[in-house]
């Protein structure tokens, strides 16, 4: 499903759109039940949108179908590549309605929603990728009734692609970077998150990031004697 495993992206990079609107991937109100970010101690690299098994799933933008098949935890999946290099991924489907190399129009039915793969209940797992790298979909698209793309020219930083810097239970605050200069300036303000590993202590983490234990505790609202759990996130800046 990912042919770009050996490809290395340079940050920041930009994605441009030739439209300011997309087609809703479902035919009802879009309810996001789980967001891009850290979930249950691991990365959730897309968003989950509520639907009922059998609901039609549609292409968000014009494009060409690159992948149709079963892919591990994603279950039945369709990947559409768009003219700007962006790819949208539609997972947990119950049925396919397109074939590989088929050109599709914005709003065209790709398949039907379901529970295939590691799905806890029926929903659409939607990912947005560029050269194999997942991007927080809510940085590019507003999942509201207007179906709007947040800008025609959007610059992407590591923060926008790294799930560690987001939490699946709430929407991240992500101002759009419209120029490379905006993106470079924004990097200085983006928070850095560290994932606790086996053997870590507050002292080790603080020294590694040139902080005092007091600073680290204050930033994270924890105490010096707080128990650290493997997989726990600590904000570094």
UniProtKB/TrEMBL annotation:
SUPFAM superfamilies: Duplicated hybrid motif (SSF51261), LysM domain (SSF54106)
Origin superkingdom: Bacteria
InterPro entries: Cell_wall_metabolism_enzyme (IPR050570), Dup_hybrid_motif (IPR011055), LysM (IPR018392), LysM_dom_sf (IPR036779), M23ase_b-sheet_dom (IPR016047)
Domain LysM: residue ranges: 192-236
Single GO MF annotation: metalloendopeptidase activity
PANTHER family xrefs: MUREIN HYDROLASE ACTIVATOR ENVC, PEPTIDASE-RELATED
Protein known as: Peptidoglycan DD-metalloendopeptidase family protein
Native species: Leptobacterium flavescens
Taxonomic lineage: Bacteria, Pseudomonadati, Bacteroidota, Flavobacteriia, Flavobacteriales
